[in-house]
Write a structure and sequence with these properties.
single chain, 8 strands, about 150 residues
Protein backbone atom coordinates (compact mmCIF):
# COMPACT_ATOMS: atom_id res chain seq x y z
CA UNK A 1 0.00 0.00 0.00
CA UNK A 2 1.09 3.55 -0.71
CA UNK A 3 -0.36 6.49 1.15
CA UNK A 4 -3.49 4.66 2.31
CA UNK A 5 -4.27 3.38 -1.17
CA UNK A 6 -3.72 -0.07 -2.59
CA UNK A 7 -2.02 0.03 -5.95
CA UNK A 8 -4.45 -2.69 -6.96
CA UNK A 9 -6.09 -5.74 -5.53
CA UNK A 10 -4.76 -8.82 -7.26
CA UNK A 11 -7.96 -10.73 -8.05
CA UNK A 12 -7.04 -14.24 -9.15
CA UNK A 13 -10.47 -15.50 -10.10
CA UNK A 14 -14.23 -15.12 -9.93
CA UNK A 15 -15.69 -17.69 -7.53
CA UNK A 16 -19.39 -17.12 -8.03
CA UNK A 17 -22.09 -14.71 -9.02
CA UNK A 18 -25.44 -14.66 -7.21
CA UNK A 19 -28.48 -14.01 -9.38
CA UNK A 20 -31.98 -13.41 -8.05
CA UNK A 21 -34.35 -15.35 -10.28
CA UNK A 22 -38.15 -15.23 -10.42
CA UNK A 23 -38.57 -18.84 -11.55
CA UNK A 24 -35.95 -21.45 -10.61
CA UNK A 25 -37.16 -24.04 -13.14
CA UNK A 26 -37.15 -21.56 -16.01
CA UNK A 27 -33.68 -20.31 -15.07
CA UNK A 28 -32.32 -23.83 -14.67
CA UNK A 29 -33.72 -24.79 -18.07
CA UNK A 30 -32.05 -21.77 -19.66
CA UNK A 31 -28.64 -22.28 -18.06
CA UNK A 32 -28.59 -26.07 -18.44
CA UNK A 33 -30.54 -26.78 -21.65
CA UNK A 34 -29.81 -23.60 -23.62
CA UNK A 35 -26.29 -22.75 -22.41
CA UNK A 36 -25.26 -26.31 -21.55
CA UNK A 37 -24.02 -25.60 -18.01
CA UNK A 38 -24.09 -28.39 -15.43
CA UNK A 39 -26.51 -28.06 -12.49
CA UNK A 40 -25.14 -28.38 -8.96
CA UNK A 41 -26.98 -29.25 -5.75
CA UNK A 42 -30.25 -29.61 -7.68
CA UNK A 43 -31.45 -32.66 -5.73
CA UNK A 44 -30.51 -31.01 -2.44
CA UNK A 45 -32.48 -27.91 -3.47
CA UNK A 46 -35.52 -29.92 -4.55
CA UNK A 47 -35.51 -31.85 -1.25
CA UNK A 48 -35.19 -28.63 0.80
CA UNK A 49 -31.67 -29.35 2.11
CA UNK A 50 -30.24 -26.18 0.52
CA UNK A 51 -31.92 -22.87 -0.30
CA UNK A 52 -30.78 -22.56 -3.92
CA UNK A 53 -29.23 -24.52 -6.79
CA UNK A 54 -26.17 -23.50 -8.79
CA UNK A 55 -24.89 -24.03 -12.31
CA UNK A 56 -21.21 -24.59 -12.97
CA UNK A 57 -19.49 -22.31 -15.49
CA UNK A 58 -16.16 -24.12 -15.19
CA UNK A 59 -14.21 -26.03 -12.52
CA UNK A 60 -13.59 -22.82 -10.56
CA UNK A 61 -16.75 -20.73 -11.02
CA UNK A 62 -20.49 -21.15 -10.43
CA UNK A 63 -23.67 -19.09 -10.70
CA UNK A 64 -25.95 -19.35 -7.65
CA UNK A 65 -29.63 -19.09 -8.61
CA UNK A 66 -31.44 -17.50 -5.65
CA UNK A 67 -35.25 -17.51 -5.63
CA UNK A 68 -36.47 -13.93 -5.31
CA UNK A 69 -38.41 -13.04 -2.20
CA UNK A 70 -41.78 -11.40 -2.81
CA UNK A 71 -41.23 -8.53 -0.41
CA UNK A 72 -37.69 -7.28 -0.88
CA UNK A 73 -37.26 -3.75 0.42
CA UNK A 74 -36.07 -1.42 -2.30
CA UNK A 75 -35.50 1.87 -0.50
CA UNK A 76 -32.58 1.15 1.81
CA UNK A 77 -29.60 3.33 2.64
CA UNK A 78 -26.53 2.39 0.63
CA UNK A 79 -24.67 1.32 3.76
CA UNK A 80 -27.18 -1.35 4.75
CA UNK A 81 -27.87 -4.74 3.23
CA UNK A 82 -31.30 -5.08 1.70
CA UNK A 83 -33.40 -7.77 3.36
CA UNK A 84 -33.75 -10.94 1.36
CA UNK A 85 -31.46 -12.22 -1.34
CA UNK A 86 -29.03 -9.73 -2.80
CA UNK A 87 -27.19 -9.98 -6.09
CA UNK A 88 -23.49 -10.06 -5.45
CA UNK A 89 -20.20 -11.16 -6.89
CA UNK A 90 -17.36 -13.00 -5.23
CA UNK A 91 -13.76 -12.21 -6.13
CA UNK A 92 -10.95 -14.59 -5.21
CA UNK A 93 -7.61 -13.30 -3.95
CA UNK A 94 -4.47 -15.02 -2.70
CA UNK A 95 -4.40 -16.01 0.98
CA UNK A 96 -1.30 -13.87 1.55
CA UNK A 97 -3.11 -10.78 0.21
CA UNK A 98 -6.33 -11.33 2.18
CA UNK A 99 -5.28 -9.74 5.53
CA UNK A 100 -3.93 -6.65 3.74
CA UNK A 101 -7.21 -6.24 1.85
CA UNK A 102 -9.25 -6.45 5.06
CA UNK A 103 -6.95 -3.86 6.64
CA UNK A 104 -7.25 -1.65 3.56
CA UNK A 105 -11.05 -1.74 3.71
CA UNK A 106 -10.92 -0.67 7.36
CA UNK A 107 -8.47 2.16 6.60
CA UNK A 108 -10.77 3.42 3.84
CA UNK A 109 -13.70 3.28 6.31
CA UNK A 110 -15.49 0.77 4.14
CA UNK A 111 -17.76 -1.07 6.49
CA UNK A 112 -17.22 -4.81 6.38
CA UNK A 113 -20.75 -6.14 6.83
CA UNK A 114 -19.63 -9.64 7.70
CA UNK A 115 -16.39 -11.47 8.11
CA UNK A 116 -13.90 -12.77 8.02
CA UNK A 117 -16.14 -15.82 7.97
CA UNK A 118 -15.66 -19.38 6.71
CA UNK A 119 -18.11 -20.38 3.98
CA UNK A 120 -18.48 -23.02 1.31
CA UNK A 121 -17.55 -21.82 -2.18
CA UNK A 122 -17.19 -23.15 -5.69
CA UNK A 123 -13.96 -24.94 -4.68
CA UNK A 124 -14.68 -25.88 -1.07
CA UNK A 125 -14.23 -24.02 2.22
CA UNK A 126 -12.89 -20.50 2.06
CA UNK A 127 -12.66 -17.33 4.13
CA UNK A 128 -14.66 -14.28 3.03
CA UNK A 129 -15.48 -10.70 3.90
CA UNK A 130 -18.58 -8.92 2.62
CA UNK A 131 -19.08 -5.22 1.97
CA UNK A 132 -21.25 -2.99 -0.21
CA UNK A 133 -20.15 -0.90 -3.15
CA UNK A 134 -21.43 2.72 -3.40
CA UNK A 135 -24.61 1.53 -5.17
CA UNK A 136 -25.46 -1.05 -2.52
CA UNK A 137 -24.26 -4.09 -4.46
CA UNK A 138 -22.64 -6.70 -2.28
CA UNK A 139 -19.00 -7.55 -2.98
CA UNK A 140 -17.38 -10.60 -1.43
CA UNK A 141 -13.62 -11.00 -1.25
CA UNK A 142 -12.65 -14.64 -0.70
CA UNK A 143 -9.47 -16.64 -0.25
CA UNK A 144 -9.00 -20.37 -0.35
CA UNK A 145 -6.45 -22.00 1.98
CA UNK A 146 -4.39 -23.47 -0.89
CA UNK A 147 -4.02 -20.21 -2.83
Amino acid sequence: MKGGRMDRIRVTDLDHIVLNVANIDRSLEFYTDVLGLAPERLEEFRSGKVGFPSVRINERTIIDLFPMKAAVATAQPKSEKINGNLNHLCLVVGKDDFPEIVSYLTQRQISVREGPVSRWGARGRATSVYFLDPDGNEVEIRCYPAQ
